[in-house]
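Hi team,

As requested, here is the filled-out complex form for the flavin mononucleotide run. I kept the field names the same as last time so the parser does not choke. Let me know if anything looks off before we queue the next batch.

— J.
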Amino acid sequence: MATRTTIDGDPDDILCATDTTVSDTSEAAALDMPSRVLTGATRVERAWAHWRALGAPRFLVAPMVDNSELPFRMLCRKYGAEAAYTPMLHSRIFSENEKYRSMEFTTCKEDRPLFVQFCANDPKILLEAARRVAPHCDYIDINLGCPQRIARRGYYGAFLMENQPLIKSLVETLALNLDVPVSCKIRIFPNLDDTISYAKMLEEAGCSLLAVHGRTRDQKDSTKFKADWAALRAVKQALRIPVLANGNIRHMADVNSCLEETGCDGVLSAETLLENPALFAGYKTVEWREEGDEDGCLDQADLAVEYLRLCEKYPVPWRMVRSHVHKLLGDWFRIHPEVREELNKQSTLTFEWLYDMVRRLKELGVRVPLYGGRNAVVDKIVVNGAAS
Ligand SMILES: Cc1cc2nc3c(=O)[nH]c(=O)nc-3n(C[C@H](O)[C@H](O)[C@H](O)COP(=O)(O)O)c2cc1C
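And here is what came back:
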């Protein structure tokens, strides 16, 4: 979850196409908006009204540094994601550095509902960064869950959990000075009572939506530690604002169990979506195939090509493209590691080379399908009343 701050030098840091959809609207943002105070009950009503006006999204793309960027969000939205988070942006660098803003935050009008996530430890700097993106998003999200060393050094993410007065002032400053609601993404404490009082403090401070990753700060390895859905249920029951669950989502059956067991209003998925951006349309990777699951007539190479097309339309740094190609085609590369090695040798990438690589992988004759899917797509079309 490291945030990258250097932009020059590495060809992977160059945008993958020259067109850009970024617009810096900081000038247009209201810079002297008066503060306002709402009672707790009104805030909660507003929180629900806002969530419902967005269509009460249940299936969300979690924030992922270098991975939940615009083209990937658009791909996931096409396959059933109902809302998405940007990667974590560093509030101070975002406020100070125009190049960082234009490289790391891009969006388009179809990219909604959108949560823009920042890490921060200074309320004024966070507010300044938030004002720049407020016109383009539906929530300003504060990252209170990053457990990595870089967050310890930078004093943000989960390392603020011991300084709740600071967290409170971050949330209050946004809630009092912005029209766009503030949301937070947290990890749980080892002790349930601590988690509940933390969550209540956030709600009280003006947080309009809380996403809870059901692991503690020390439980970094998701393969070793299962997310604690019972803790998520307790948080949901203790709060009055919408609560989203995060952790242990590998396919739609997990989504349904999670919503049922936790009572939460939606789920966030991160790692599974990287391999399978069609998760929320009901597709699953071969690892989770059960008897009766049929070939979904869609595979990760198809999704890789769709992703590349979106990158041509919505340029992002090549390092993000490279990262997604590795994750999307991991199952295929395990069968043909020589193709992965060739990719690793390319210090400069082009779309022609990548499309050709996918074509060659297919010609090698092994296909790894995604399973299921079609029924879920039909359901989604009926639910949303819109064809894809
Ligand atoms: C590549 C990657 C980058 C991530 N970056 C962020 C981030 O920027 N902000 C954040 O709050 N969480 C970040 N996370 C954590 C995820 O949002 C999520 O909380 C975690 O992976 C658990 O969800 P999962 O079990 O669905 O993977 C990242 C996770 C991954 C795999």
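Two things worth flagging: The first strand starts at residue 59 and ends at 61. The two ends are 32 Å apart (CA to CA).

Thanks,
J.
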